[in-house]
Amino acid sequence: MSQQRLNRVIQALHTHRLDGLALMPDANLTYLSGLTFHKGKRLSLALVPADGSPPCFVIPALEHGRAEATARIPMRYFPWHDAEGPAGALAAAASAAFGPAARGCTLALEYASLRVMELRALEAVIPDLRTRDATPILAALRMVKDAEELATIERAVQIVETALERTIAQIRPGMTERQVSRLCSEAILAAGAEGESFENIVASGPNAANPHHSNTDRALQPGDLVILDCGARYGGYISDITRTIAIGEPGAEARRIYDLVLQANAAGRAAARPGASGAEIDAAARQVIEQGGYGAFFIHRTGHGIGLETHEPPDIVAGSDEPLPAGVTFTVEPGIYLPGVTGARIEDDVVISADGARSLTTFGRELRIIEG
Ligand code: ZN
Ligand code: ZN
Asked: From ligand 1's centre to the CA of 323, what distance in Å?
C-alpha cells in the first residue's frame, strides 16, 4: 500500500518538475512510510529523490531501530549520534539522494511544518537550494482515502461514538464543563483510542455561543444547551464528532435553533456526492439556516477534511470550487451561535461514495434531554 503511495508521490514530483522532497516527522511522512515520530529538537528528515530510488532518512540513532522495524517502504538510513551532530549524516544522505552535484536542486519542503533549523541544515549541504511548498502537493494525494484508510477512520469513529455515549450517560446537572471534559477524555482512551484528536470542547449555556470555547468550571444548569465536540485518534487517523444536548427542557428559541441546525446538517450531507464541491455542500447547509432567519449566526465554514490530521483539505466553504471525487472524507458541522445566550452544532464525518455520500458517524441526532 505504501509503495503505491510512494509511486504516486514520485509521479507528483515529476509533474511539478521537482528533484525531490524533504519530509519532517509529521503527517506526510506517516502517510508515505507508516512511521510516526515526535517532532523533537533532533534533526530528522526523509529525503525522497524523484528518480524513484529509496528515500534517504536522516534520523537520530536512538530512533533508528524502531524506524527500520516499522517503516512500510524501503529506506536508506543515515543515523547520527548526539556526540557528533547531524551535519555529516545529512551531507551523506543528500549526496546519496540527489547525487554529489546536488547544487541548485529544487526540493519540495513542508512550509507549514519545516523549521528554520531544518532549512539551514539543508542549505548547508545543498548549495543554491531552491524550494517549493510540498504541502498542497501532498494534500492533493492524501485527500482521497483508500479502503484501508477508510476502515481505520471508521474505527476511530466507532471509538469516539462509544465514548460519547458513555459520557452523555454520566452527565448530570451541576457537573462542570471541566468535569464532563475529563469524563470524555477518559472514555475515549478506555474505548481504545491512541489519544484524543484534539482537546475536547464542552460548551454549556452562554458558552455554547463560542465555537472554539475553552472548557471552564461553569456548572451545567437546567435550560442549558451543551455542545460536546470530541474525537479519537486510532491507527494515526482521527474522528471528529459534535452533538448538542439539553439539560432539562430547552426554551423555545434553543429548540428552534437546534432543529434548524439538524436540518442544515441533513441538507449538507444530502448535497455530498461525487462531483459536488465544498462550496455547494456549504451552500446547501447554509441556505437552511439563512431561510430560518439565523444566517448571521452561522459564523464558520460547514466543514473540513479529516484523515491523519483533524483539519486537512478540502474546506467545505464558499470558494472551494473543486469537484470532490469518491473517497474524500470531511465533516459536515453547521452551527448557530447567539452571543451571550446559547448555541448548537451537529457534526458528522462523511465520505463521498460512488453514488452519494455515507455518514461514518451514526450517533443519533435527535436532541437528547438530560433530566435532573
Ligand atoms: Zn469537531
Ligand atoms: Zn470539526
From this structure: 24
Distance from the Cα of residue 162 to its chain's centroid: 20
Is residue 351 over pLDDT 60? yes
| Enclosing H/E stretch for 291 | helix 278-291
- Asked whether the bond before 86 is cis by omega within 30 degrees of 0, the reply is no
Answer for the pair 218, 177: CB distance below 8 angstroms, yes or no. yes
At a CB cut-off of 8 Å and minimum separation 6, what does 6 contact? 32, 48, 55, 73
- For ligand 1, a single-atom ion, the residues with CB < 5 A are 229, 240, 242, 347
Say if residue 108 is in the same domain as residue 150: no
Ligand 1 centre to CA of 200 (Å) is: 8
**Per-residue pLDDT for 101 more than 70?**
no
111, 225: one domain = no
The reply to whether 191 and 95 lie within a common domain is no
Number of structural domains the chain divides into: 2
Whether the Cβ atoms of residue 281 and residue 303 lie closer than 8 Å to each other: yes
Give 172-211 pLDDT, tens digit per residue.
999 999 999 999 999 999 999 999 999 999 999 999 999 9
Query: Does the pTM of the predicted model rise above 0.85?
Result: yes
Residue pair 50/13 in contact by the 8 Å Cβ criterion: yes
Q: Which ligand is closest in space to the CA of residue 329?
A: 2
321, 232: one domain: yes
270: pLDDT strictly greater than 70 = yes
Q: Among 142, 164, 181, give the residue marking a domain's end.
A: 142
Q: b/e per residue, 262-299, with b = 16+ CB within 10 A? A: bbbbbbbbebbbbebbbbbbbbbbbebbeebebeebbe
Longest dimension (CA), the chain: 73
Q: Which domain holds residue 90?
A: 2-142
Instruction: Count the Cβ atoms, other than its own, within 10 Å of residue 235.
Output: 16
